[in-house]
Every structure is written in structure tokens, then in C-alpha cells.
Specification:
Elements (H helix, E strand, L loop, with lengths): L1 E3 L30 H12 L6 E8 L9 E2 L3 H9 L5 H10 L6 H8 L7 E4 L5 E2 L6 E6 H32 L4 E4 L7 H14 L4 E2 L2 H7 L3 E3 L3 H5 L12 E2 L6 E2 L2 H14 L12 H13 L5 E3 L5 H18 L6 E4 L4 H19 L8 E4 L5 H10 L5 E4 L1 H4 L9 E8 L2 E2 L16 E7 L5 E8 L11 E4 L7 E4 L3 E4 L2 E4 L13 H13 L3 H4 L8 E5 H14 L7
Parallel strand pairs: 7-8, 7-15, 12-13, 13-14, 14-15, 19-24
Antiparallel strand pairs: 1-9, 2-6, 2-16, 3-5, 4-6, 4-23, 10-11, 16-17, 18-19, 18-22, 20-21, 20-24
Helix pairs in contact: 1-5, 2-5, 5-6, 5-13, 9-11, 10-11, 11-12
Length: 563
């Protein structure tokens, strides 16, 4: 397939002034929030509580798609929002018109001064594999400001992490050797969904996109060939007026490339092995293939299922590819977009092998076969079980729409205010929050695989190499285990220091995030990642945090009375 390389893709996160640039989507402004964030902000301000220091955790409760892991994505866009968070006069006027007339004018003066200079963000690096309950971001700052950030942060993380995880699951099914192409723009939920999908599928392990805008914005490699409409637009080769083609090295020229293709088609019909497979091929298809090859001789990839794959598409492709070979070019391959993909890929591969052997065209047997046609995890898994000869997969609808699960379920919960830990209780234990400002660690075992994640209180000492630590399930008293870590990794890094004076982690390039994601997935045991009955990954708390959490739980829960 033709690939457009973006040599000068944008450097992530920096503008010409050396400051962090604004969000990719211009709709991501301080107004991209829920109305109740403003009503709460006014109530905080009215009560004189708006500058009280609060800590919120952003996390999710369950892994998506019935799996046991998630890929964290969207952090860069969150930091871009925070770095540029400032209300315009027009926005303040709209808020004033939207809130009750009884709201005091002083509140709008307060909003004019709001920014994130006193907000502190600690987060797990983008591209990391993450698990339920562990904070993806810890947001600390004046309570009114942090509440205004809640909805946009949840919005920016939710879909990004969901689609990156979906992409990584598709990558896990096909393996590392296959090419994965994201073809979802036309089926995505609007322009923003299409742009975001291309970016986050690339992080999750896809190799390229069909989305030109994403290619320009992010420097993602682009791939694309032609559609059935291009094939159908031709009637026969009489429409081809410019028939000449220079050789690959420019040393000579074929004045009638069309005749050269026909000569090869006749040879294929006379083949003892191939001749019986087809008769007269479709002339409009042949004309389209020749025309496309004349336009892109170094990147000829043909869609071969417009009429009949075996009796027309593949023979026509091979005739054009062999003519190109005479002039020093190497055709890229074919794309299958319908039918029995496993069977057709075997037939195509056998065709290519016979040509290499019968005509001595070295490497022709390895001609690439790409498959599309509404693929998803299940069909990829079925193809693996059947066996196939497909080299690349173009995946769209099920990938970018996250058809199997529409949302990740990210939440944003207060865990501390004015240095006082807070807890959110529920009859559903999975919705009980883990209180206080925390530190999070990943503990690794002897084989370099991660064993579990553990949360501790901020002031607790970090787990040490070779020292046994008691790890407890947050809610189930009997579930506990001692772990002797061979490596300890602290997960939360400072990506926005506010006024703390801490060193800020730089936002990495998109390729670096993608590589980080691939490396992370390699450190997770395969049984945590398998599609059917994956092993749950352990998320734990320290013994001290467990005891404090349950003490606070009992303190906050009302005691019933029986009459």
C-alpha cells in the first residue's frame, strides 16, 4: 500500500513560544463541562470554600470488553487544556446569562481570574497499561477550579483510553508480525471521533491510518489505495490514452504498457497450472488496474473483489504486476474486501507462488494480501483458527466506534479536602472510593512481569526491593498476599506542578507513547490479556491504608436502628 511519510510531524505539546499549546480540538475550552460544575463553583464561592485545597482521583471501575487490562490514553490533551485554561469575556458573559439572575456579580469577577496555576497534576504516563481503582490522574488544587476540570478531563480520558485499549486487543489477536491499518474515519462518531480514533489506535498498536487529517496533525503514517467505484468507473482499456511508462531506473521507457499487460495476461491463460482457473477477465477492472499502476507504479495495490476474485481480480492484478516487474517495479499487493477471506487468501497466495515458480519472478510469492470487510476481534480470532495467508488488516467500524462497549466508565472522586481524607460510600462495593492522597506502585516478579499494583498513603515508605510487603484487597478481608518485589515502579508522575516547584515531566512524542504502550503490553502476562477467561490482575492497598480506609468507612456510614 502507498505510505505517505510525515517527516515533519508536529512536536507534541510545544508551540513556538516554548509553552504548551492548546488542545487539538478547538471545542475543548473551559465551557466544555456540565452546568452543575458552574452551579457548584458558585455555591463554593458563596460559602467562601472555593479556595479550599482538594484532591480528586480520576480512575475507572471495570476493564472494558470483558478483558483484564486497559491502555491509558488522553493525558496529553488534558495537560494542554490545563495549561491554557482561561475564561474569555464572551464565555463569562454566557455563563452569567445561563445562571440564575440572583448569582452575585463578584462570582464572575472571580471566574475572570481563574486558571490552573495552583493546580497540581500527577498521572500515570500515557500509553501505560492500567487497572481498575488505581488513579490514572491525581488532581489537586482549589476545590472550585478542580471541579470545573472534572467533566473535560473525564471526557478526554474516556474515549481515548477505550479506543486505545480496543486497538491493543486487535493487535494482541493478530500478533506482532501483521500490519494493522485503521480505516474508521467514515464510520466514526463525527470528525472529533475520527481524529481521536486515528491517534489513539496508533498508540494502541496500529501501524497506519487512512485519515489524512490525522496524518497531518500527528505525523501518523498513512495508507490508502482505491475503491470499488474507481474500478467501476472504467469500461475498457480504450479509455487509457497515456500508455507509456518509464522504467524504475529511468533508463528506458515502455511506450505501450497496456499491450505489455495483455501479453502477460495471455501467458497466464496459457499456463498449465493457472490457465484452467480463469477465462476472460473483466475488461473494466483490467483498465482500472492498468490506470492505477500507471499513476502509482511504485505503490500498486489493487482491490480485487469488485467482480470475481479468482476468475478476474487476481489474474488481472498479476498481469499488471508482472508488466511492472519487467520495468523494475515491485507491486505492493491486493486487498480483499468481501467473501471468504481465509479461502480467498489461500487461493491468492497459491496463485502468487505458481507465478514465482513458473516465470522465475523472485519474491512474487510474498506479494502482500490485505483484508478488510467489517473486521473485529472475533473475526480475526476465527481467521487465526481457520488459517489464512493475510499480511495486513484494514479495520474500521468495530474498532473506532468501540462497538462491543461504548464507554469506559471513568469517574472523578474527591479523596481529600483541607488535608482531611474523604470517602464515597455505596451499597455497591465496587463504587466505594479509596480515600486520601495516595502513591501508587507496580511490583514486578522474577520473570520481569508485573505481579500487582499497590496503593499506599502518601506518607508511607515506598516498597523496597527484596523486602516482603503485605498486599491487601481493598474490600475483601480474606484476600491478601505477601509479595517480595524484584522491581518497584512508582506510577504517578508530576505532569503539571502548579506552584509546588516540582519538576514537570515532559510530554513525549506520539511515537514514544506508542513504543511505551508496546513495551508495557510485553510486561503483562499473556493470561491477563487473553480473550477468553483472562486472569484478573491484582490491585491492592497497603495494610495501613486498608485499616484506615475501613475505619473511615465505619465512621462515615450511618448506624441503623431496629424498632
Amino acid at each position: 500500500m502507498e505510505q505517505v511519510k510525515m517527516e515533519n510531524g508536529p512536536k507534541i505539546g510545544e508551540n513556538s513560544l516554548g509553552c504548551i499549546s492548546g488542545p487539538t480540538n478547538p471545542m475543548v475550552t473551559p465551557l466544555l463541562t456540565d452546568l452543575y460544575q458552574f452551579t457548584m463553583a458558585y455555591a463554593y464561592w458563596k460559602a467562601g470554600k472555593h479556595n479550599e485545597r482538594a484532591v480528586f482521583d480520576l480512575y475507572f471501575r471495570r476493564n472494558p470488553f470483558g478483558g483484564e487490562y486497559t491502555v491509558f490514553a488522553g493525558l496529553e490533551e488534558c495537560i494542554k487544556l490545563i495549561a491554557n485554561f482561561k475564561f474569555t469575556e464572551d464565555e463569562i458573559a454566557f455563563i452569567e446569562a445561563s445562571l440564575p439572575a440572583s448569582c452575585e456579580a463578584g462570582f464572575y469577577d472571580y471566574l475572570r481570574g481563574v486558571d490552573c496555576s495552583d493546580v497540581e497534576i500527577h498521572a500515570i504516563p500515557e500509553g501505560y497499561v492500567v487497572f481498575p481503582k488505581v488513579p490514572l490522574m491525581r488532581v489537586e488544587g482549589p476545590v472550585a477550579v478542580v471541579q470545573l476540570l472534572e467533566t473535560p478531563l473525564v471526557n478526554l480520558i474516556n474515549y481515548a483510553s477505550l479506543v486505545a485499549t480496543n486497538a491493543s486487543r486487535h493487535r494482541f489477536v493478530v500478533g506482532k508480525s501483521k500490519l494493522l491499518l485503521e480505516f474508521g474515519l467514515r464510520r466514526a462518531q463525527g470528525p472529533d471521533g475520527g481524529i481521536g480514533a486515528s491517534k489513539y489506535c496508533y498508540i494502541g498498536g496500529f501501524d497506519a491510518t487512512s485519515n489524512v487529517a490525522a496524518g497531518k496533525l500527528f505525523g501518523i503514517p498513512m495508507r490508502g489505495t482505491h475503491s470499488h467505484a474507481f474500478v467501476s468507473s472504467f469500461v475498457n482499456t480504450d479509455e487509457i490514452t497515456e500508455k507509456s511508462l518509464k522504467s524504475s531506473d529511468g533508463s528506458n521507457s515502455c511506450e505501450d504498457f497496456v499491450s505489455l499487460v495483455y501479453a502477460w495476461l495471455r501467458k497466464l491463460k496459457l499456463s498449465k497450472i493457472l490457465g484452467g482457473l480463469f477465462g476472460e477477465t473483466n475488461p473494466s477492472e483490467l483498465a482500472a488496474f492498468i490506470s492505477y499502476a500507471l499513476a502509482f507504479p511504485r505503490a500498486f495495490l489493487a482491490l480485487v473483489d469488485t467482480y470475481d476474485v479468482i476468475r478476474s481480480g487476481i489474474p488481472n492484478f498479476c498481469a499488471v504486476a508482472l508488466a511492472l516487474n519487467n520495468l523494475g517495479y515491485k507491486a505492493i499487493g491486493i486487498r480483499l474486501d468481501s467473501g471468504d477471506l481465509a479461502y480467498l487468501s489461500y487461493q491468492a497466495r497459491n496463485f502468487f507462488k505458481v507465478i514465482e515458480k513458473e516465470y522465475g519472478v523472485q519474491g512474487f510469492s510474498k506479494t502482500s494480501i490485505t483484508a478488510s470487510n467489517d473486521l473485529n476481534e472475533e473475526t480475526l480470532d476465527a481467521l487465526n483458527k481457520q488459517g489464512h495467508e493475510i499480511d495486513a488488516f484494514g479495520i474500521g467500524t468495530h474498532l473506532v466506534t468501540c462497538y462491543a462497549q461504548p464507554a469506559l466508565g471513568v469517574v472523578f472522586k474527591m479523596v481529600e479536602i483541607n488535608s482531611q481524607p474523604r470517602i464515597k460510600l455505596s451499597e455497591d462495593v465496587s463504587k466505594v472510593s479509596i480515600p486520601c492522597k495516595k502513591r501508587c506502585y507496580r511490583l514486578y516478579g522474577k520473570e520481569s512481569y508485573s505481579l500487582l499494583d499497590i496503593m499506599t498513603g502518601e506518607d508511607e515508605p515506598a516498597p523496597k526491593l527484596g523486602e516482603r510487603i503485605l498486599c491487601r484487597h481493598p474490600f475483601i478481608e480474606s484476600k491478601r498476599a505477601y509479595v517480595v518485589p524484584q522491581r518497584v515502579e512508582e506510577l504517578l508522575k508530576c505532569f503539571w506542578p502548579g506552584k509546588s516547584g516540582k519538576k514537570r515531566e515532559e510530554l513525549p512524542e506520539l511515537k514514544t507513547i506508542r513504543e511505551q504502550c508496546i513495551n508495557q503490553l510485553d510486561q503483562i502476562r499473556a493470561d491477563h490479556m487473553r480473550r477468553l477467561n483472562p486472569t484478573p490482575y491484582k490491585v491492592s492497598v497497603s495494610a495501613k491504608l486498608y485499616d484506615f480506609m475501613h475505619f473511615l468507612w465505619l465512621s462515615e456510614a450511618p448506624v441503623g436502628e431496629l424498632q
